[in-house]
Write a structure and sequence with these properties.
313 residues; alpha/beta; eight-stranded mixed β-sheet; four-stranded antiparallel β-sheet; 23% strand
Length: 313
């Protein structure tokens, strides 16, 4: 696999509660995460709310600056360019209601200084056609469109500069169930036709199983497991991954598998547990889990599968 994006020991920390006479506390949103994304690959990031998925995606898209570590695109540190673009979760707040759709879609080209006004208009027309919007969409405002159509506008804006990597942050969760599959199929079709890499942030494991090549599992800002899609869904190694899969609803099932269903709440990233951060919710936790942080290591009998657990299976 030719590496497109390389994340090396990334940390993202935020100061919270600081005041004139208060130093504040440190919120560790992402902690020592290392990942690689290959050309044309779809890597899914999964985990509960508060696991650091969105923060990691925003760093990759250049919207946040990491506290430590490096993010390299084709071997170079990420700089502002059109090669990485982002599709946001909420299509209602992601589009400026005062701008015409044509101007919204053309904005990346204008900011990058690409083409004349006439050339940008032509590229916008072609892009609107590719995302299957009405031909007159460029001359209308976002409020004139449904949620699914607005997400298509956001996708068009992300693709107009011919990026090589798209960060999609829960792009379906704000849409009606009836149109989620349409937007998902559009994303997959455009990814294949344009040979894009995709960092897909989601909590919906059914969608992840459908779209991902590999899956990375985050818990409290830490990477706890990464594997190929089929391996992870059929033979999860980390207890947290297994609990997520057990808790996922399945068509025709009266209940979840139940053996490892998650209990309790995710701890605060301001005051994470010592040792393995999952030990407060893990049914297999022992003294070593409470005192020693596990290292993300390859499983010797499962190529491409890594887990951070003292009792990985």
């Amino acid at each position: 696999m030719s590496v497109l994006l390389d994340i090396d020991s990334m940390c993202v920390h935020f100061k919270v509660g600081a005041g004139l006479f208060k130093p504040g506390k440190t919120l560790r949103a992402v902690e020592k995460v290392s990942l690689k994304i290959g050309e044309n690959e779809t890597l899914a990031l999964v985990g509960e709310s508060g696991s650091g998925k969105t923060t990691l995606g925003r760093v990759v898209a250049g919207l946040e600056v990491p506290t430590a570590g490096q993010v390299r695109f084709r071997g170079e540190r990420i700089q502002s360019s059109g090669k990485i673009q982002m599709v946001f979760q909420d299509p209602f707040s992601a589009l400026d209601p005062r701008m015409l759709v044509g101007d919204i879609v053309a904005e990346p080209l204008r900011l990058l200084g690409e083409g004349t006004a006439a050339q940008r208009r032509e590229r916008v027309r072609a892009m609107i056609e590719q995302v299957r919007l009405p031909a007159d969409a460029a001359d209308r405002y976002p409020h004139e469109f449904s949620g699914g159509q607005r997400q298509r506008i956001a996708i068009a804006r992300a693709l107009i500069s011919n990026p090589e990597l798209i960060v999609a942050d829960e792009p379906l969760s704000a849409l009606d169930v009836s149109i989620q599959s349409q937007v998902l199929n559009l994303i997959m079709d455009l990814k294949d036709s344009r040979k894009l890499a995709l960092l897909f942030v989601s909590h919906d494991l059914a969608v992840v199983h459908h779209i991902a090549d590999r899956v990375a599992v985050l818990y409290l800002g830490r990477l706890v497991e990464i594997a190929g899609r089929d391996e992870l869904f059929s033979r999860p190694s980390h207890p947290y991954t297994r609990a997520l899969l057990d808790a996922a609803p399945r068509i025709g099932a009266r209940r979840t598998r139940g053996a490892s269903t998650l209990k309790g709440e995710i701890p605060s990233p301001i005051n994470p547990p010592s040792g393995c951060v999952f030990h407060t919710r893990c049914p297999k936790a022992t003294d070593i889990c409470r005192s020693a942080e596990p290292v993300l290591e390859a499983l010797p009998d499962r190529p491409g599968q890594w887990a951070a657990c003292h009792f990985k299976e």
